[in-house]
Amino acid sequence: MNRVEPAEQVFVGDGQHDHRLVAVYYVLAVLVLSLYGIRVCPFIAGLDAAHVLVTFLVGFLAAFLIKLGLENRLMPEGEPFTLSVYQFFIDFALFLAVGLGIALYNHFVLGFPLESGGKVLIGCATFGIFAGLDNGLRRERRSPAPLSALTVSPKRIFPITDRLFVIFISIAVFTSIVTGLVIIKDIDYLIAHLNDAPHAALRRAVFIDIGFVIGVVLALAMRLLWSYGNNLAYILQLQIAGLVDVSSGKLDTFVPIITRDEFSLIAAKTNRMIAHLRDAHREQNELFEVSLALATELRLEPLLARIVATTRSFVGADRVSLFLHDPHSDELWGKIAEGIEDVMRFPASSGIAGDAFTRVATVRVADAYSDPRFNPEFDRRSGYRTRSLLCVPVEDRHGRCIGVIQALNKHDGEFSESDANRLRAFAAQAAIALVNAQLFSDLDRARRYNESILRSLSNGVVTLDADLKVVKANAAAQALLGVDDQIHGQPFQQALGESRSWWETLCGGVEQAYLSEAELQLGSGKHILANITRVPLADLEDRAIGSMLVIEDVTEEKRVRNTLSRYLPTQVAEQVLLNPALNLGGVAQTATVLFSDIRDFTTLSEQLGARATVTMLNEYFSAMVEAISAHDGILDKYIGDAVMALFGVPFAGAHDADSAVRAAIAMQERLQQLNRQRTDRGEDPLAIGIGLSTGELVAGNVGSPRRMDYTVIGDTVNLASRLEAATKLYGVAVIVSEGTRAALQKDHPLRELDRVRVKGKLLAATVYQLMTESERLDEAALKLFADARGKYSTRDWQGAVLGFRELLSRFPEDGPSKVFIERCLAFQQNPPAADWDGVWPPH
After folding, report:
1. Please, which residues have CB within 8 angstroms of residue 277's CB and are 6 or more apart in sequence?
2. Are 216 and 32 a contacting pair, CB within 8 Å?
3. Kind of pairing, strands 688-704 and 734-736?
4. Helices vs strands, H then E, count in the chain
5. How far apart are CA 132 and CA 85, in angstroms?
6. d(CA 772, CA 770)
7. What SS3 class is residue 587?
8. pTM value?
9. DSSP states of 190-202 as a string?
10. For this UniProt entry, what's an example GO CC term (predicted)?
């Protein structure tokens, strides 16, 4: 950036200070002092002019060479004003050294009196003063200002009036001293030779001496004043240029600080103003870019991560967490909380974040541990040390607080009010993005839900626009009409073949219409019988935008399916229709039976009453049937509070036992969810037992010709029921038979529980516990249980008790260990028969 001042061009910040100005002063000093010595000074009048000129020339040439060699080494690094002071003293010292050297040379070599040397010394000092001040001012405006000092005001100020006063006083003092010395000495000489006719020419030289000295001093003074005025004009030009740059939008400019007067204060404040404007402009651009980035991200989880990352860099924090409000539980939860692996949840009024959310106010804390609202538990869990903290509420466009952004540990100190303002502005943008992302998520969920409904419908659904072109046709409609996805956007008549009379009749009006058992002859030649319903579609302004057709296939296959579905599960009915050779009279096959029952149901129903019991059972059965259906199970029947389900009926599969095990685990998980809801309503939780048995059974229609039921019978079914009852004895949730364990294709958390003899059976069977999440044991505990059971089987009652008790010390709720301890203690008092083989119950 170039700056132009009168009479010379200055490059701001280049740091190149040449010696042209002082060279001019050296040449001028040589000429003036030589002329003064040759033509004016009465002591050396008549001296050889070349000798005088060479003497001064050699002296000042030596000073100039010394200046070239030493000045850069002597000049320190610093602000322009400091450099100008050093420049003055260096130049003054060199001029003074030249004057002293010539004075000594004249006295000791040429034999001149000391008065003559004094005049030379005074003349050199006079030139040194003016040259030093002038060159110092020039360096002041040519030296670059350190960037670190551009917005810092000088600690010590020298007002302009004081500097002018010093300059004028210096000029006046030196002019008075020089003129006084010259006048006093020369007038003294004139008085001594007043009547001496031969010295008439010398008397004239005295008057010339006086005028010449005064003229030279005044000329130097005018040059010095011009130089100082030049500095002032240059400083004003820099100020104006900086303001012009700012007004034109160039915020990367600055005003150099080259003095220590009032202009330095103005420059520092101007630079601070420019820096603030630059920071504000950068923050505005950052906020705009962040807002644009947030507006383009519609997925909630990536948006949360982006908000956290942006906040961290935005306010210079070490960690950032975003907590959203869950209105159902009135909690703040943080899925994106840096330093915490799991999702954080805490009451909405708890801690500093809760206070910011509750009061909808910004909270700044300089020392977290001194604030009573701070909960140090999170620091203890994560090993982190929270120092400073800033919490800003996130409000939607209706002023409702939807969460809190929390920043921890400012990198360079404490969070300022500026940080809080910036974060509030960012939080406003984040709130809009969060609401948009939530709306998009809800819309996407609704879309997928609607598409799922359309896919699951057995009836064909076709939506048409105002021009009767297909907008959407679900899979059932495509299969029914014999078309594919290419029908979308095409006229619907293309899929109808020759059957158009009903179409014209059905779509001729604007009201809802229904056509029963219309015979459709499709373009493929296929004939179907269908019930067709037409429903007009309208937008928010109630303007017609198209219609929706619901096509129900009522051909023979549909009628048979409807008939079978009255007494068969949907899956069974579909399989029967797909396989016409299926024998409905009863088939022997291998399958898995699941039997579950609510524990203490009789007591519970007496406490609830009839109406509440029915409500409870409906809620419970809904949850259990969903878990069974989700794993390809078929609900066989409800028996009071019990549920019986089948896996592998009517067609067996390789993974039926695995599906039954997964269904049992899912039932326990759904029961936990149901119990949380019941606990929130102040109701007692439910407990169930589940028995699983795999083996051969008979599946088929049971009943009379007037009322039939598709079910299964056999020992496998009875065993499942008895295993469910055994869960109460052993204090476990799920027991599976040996047949089920053998049929499993994948690994499941099973524990060999006991060898039992089921009622009605002579042979003993091994049963296993399917361990749920709350019942899991580690490998060491499982080995300890097996070892204790081995001692139990070998009649080592004391050793078995010690083993089971050691297991209970680690897992106090382990029901089987408690059962075996009771047996061992009982057997110690009444041992079993000598031929006892470890089966329960003993003979």
Report:
1. 246, 251
2. yes
3. parallel
4. 23, 21
5. 9
6. 6
7. strand
8. 0.40
9. HHHTTT-GGGHHH
10. cell envelope
Residues 6+ apart with CB under 8 A from 455: 474, 475
Residues 410-413: contacts with CB within 8 Å, 24+ apart?
410/315, 410/316, 410/317, 410/318, 411/316, 411/317, 411/318, 412/316, 413/388
Counting every residue written for the chain, the total comes to 843
CA proximity to 320, closest of 389, 408, 379, 402: 408
- Contact call for residues 491 and 468 (beta carbons, < 8 A): yes
Q: What is the fold of 457-554?
A: Beta-Lactamase (3.30.450)
Q: Tell me the Ramachandran region of residue 416: left when phi exceeds 0, alpha when psi lies from -120 to 50, beta otherwise.
A: beta
Q: What is the mean pLDDT of the chain?
A: 77
DSSP letters along 628-658, please?
Answer: HHTTT-EEEEEETTEEEEEES-SS--TTHHH
Distance CA 12, CA 234 (A): 10
Closest alpha carbon to 738 in 769, 711, 708: 769
Q: Considering only CA atoms, which of 72, 282, 258, 90 is closest in space to residue 163?
A: 258
HSE-up (13 A, CA, CB side) for residue 87: 27
Residues 685 and 679: beta-carbon distance below 8 Å = yes
Superfamily name with CATH number, domain 297-443: GAF domain (3.30.450.40)
CA distance 531 to 555: 10
The three-class DSSP label of residue 584 is: coil
What DSSP element (H or E) covers 74?
A: helix 49-74
The whole-angstrom separation of Cα 618 and Cα 328 is 24
* CA 141 and chain centroid, separation: 48
The answer to whether domain 457-554 and domain 585-774 are alike in fold is no
Q: Which two tokens stand for residue 465?
A: 């626009």
**pLDDT tens readout for residues 218-242:** 788 788 778 777 777 777 777 777 7
Between the CA of residue 208 and those of 30, 113, 183, 267, what are the distances in Å?
18, 21, 11, 48
The SS3 call for residue 458 is coil
834: left (phi over 0), alpha (psi -120 to 50) or beta: alpha
Collect all residues with Cβ–Cβ distance below 8 Å to 593 and sequence separation of at least 6: 644, 645, 646, 647, 692, 693, 694, 697, 712, 716, 717, 719, 720
Phi-psi region of 731 (alpha: psi -120 to 50; beta: other; left: phi over 0): left
Q: Which two tokens stand for residue 690?
A: 């589940």
Between residues 557 and 736, which one has the greater pLDDT?
736
| Residue 559 pLDDT grade (very low, low, confident, very high; cuts 50, 70, 90) | low
Element containing residue 735 per DSSP (H, E):
strand 734-736
Does the pLDDT of residue 769 top 80, yes or no? yes
What is 585-774's CATH superfamily?
Nucleotide cyclase, GGDEF domain (3.30.70.1230)
259 close to 143: Cβ distance less than 8 angstroms: no
C-alpha span between 569 and 636 (Å, rounded): 8
In the 3-class helix/strand/coil scheme, how is 308-359 assigned residue by residue?
HHHHHHHHCEEEEEEEEEECCCCEEEEEEECCCCCCEEEECCCHHHHHHHHH
Neighbours of 142 (CB within 10 A): 22
Q: What ranges do the domains of the chain cover?
A: 11-143+158-247, 297-443, 457-554, 585-774, 777-843
Note if the bond before 650 is cis, omega within 30 degrees.
yes
Q: Give the three-class secondary structure for 532.
A: strand
Local structure of residue 44 (DSSP, 8 states): S
What is the C-alpha to C-alpha distance for residues 596 and 599, in angstroms, rounded to an integer? 9
Q: Are 792 and 805 in contact (CB under 8 A)?
A: no
| Element spanning 770, H or E | strand 765-770
Give the residues across from 320 on adjacent strands. Answer: 407
Higher per-residue pLDDT: 58 or 221: 58
Q: Per residue in 618-651, pLDDT tens?
A: 999 999 999 998 898 988 888 888 999 999 887 7
